[in-house]
Amino acid sequence: MRPKLLFCCLLLLILSGCIWPERSPNRGIEVNFREEKPSPGAFLPPAEAGEEAAVSGAAYHPEAKKVVYLTFDDGPSRHFTPRVLDILARYQVKATFMVVGVNIPQNRDVVQRIIVEGHALGNHTYSHDYKKIYRSPDAFVQDLRLCGDLLQEFTGRPVKIFRAPGGPGNLSPALKQQLKQLGYHSVGWNVTGDDANPHGASAEHIYRTVMEGVMRVEKTNAVPVILLHDGADLHTLEAPPNSALARYIETRKNLILALPKIIESLRARGYTFAVVDEKTPGPR
Length: 284
Known about the structure:
Elements: H1 2-16, E1 66-73, H2 81-91, E2 96-99, H3 108-116, E3 120-123, H4 130-133, H5 137-155, E4 161-162, H6 173-181, E5 185-186, E6 191-192, H7 203-219, E7 225-229, H8 244-268, E8 271-274
Parallel strand pairs: 1-2, 1-7, 1-8, 2-3, 4-5, 6-7
Helix pairs in contact: 2-8, 5-6, 7-8
């Protein structure tokens, strides 16, 4: 009788929750951006668990197959572009690199790797100097051509995809018409990681900003074109503490940490990755 009595008491305690504590359904997911092997499905916003999106306010349907464009501006960078390429290769994802001409000569091997690994190149002007390129329509076209000449050495054909520094809004109607007549195709963006913020951006902030932007774009049934930055070419990663350069370098490192989670989350939402071409939708 005693063993049966003990068994009944133990069973009663378990059923009443006194031994096994109830797990709270509202317990948050710990944010951890260490460099580690991919863990599909980790660190996803609530919308990716079938709940309503906090930003768009619309339910997400993972069975829908969609296209997303990852784009990286201001490189190639000897320090950061190869690390971005390593992550893209690990996940077998293709992206578009909007390169600045002055960074090309000292990074020819990086540009070649971008092409060999199946990514696309876009023209982000030669100088990226706002005062110079926006002085006149002819000044912009000349700067664009200088970068285009360098790119053609790698591609063997003209690269007509370009992104205006600061975005298409900086292009006057007259300049837009001139560029169109010359066969150029402007590509803007509708999602950003805020990784060009002069105050800096953490890995969590970059990730959250991208995913919230994607959910906002989903509400309009538009195609996400994501703007990120592999960054300008720097001779050194040493910088005075708390300086603008130190924040810039730290943000580039944080992008590297955030990128795997961004890719995993986009895949969890049913996206496939494409490279930019003349048919890419979005702001022009």
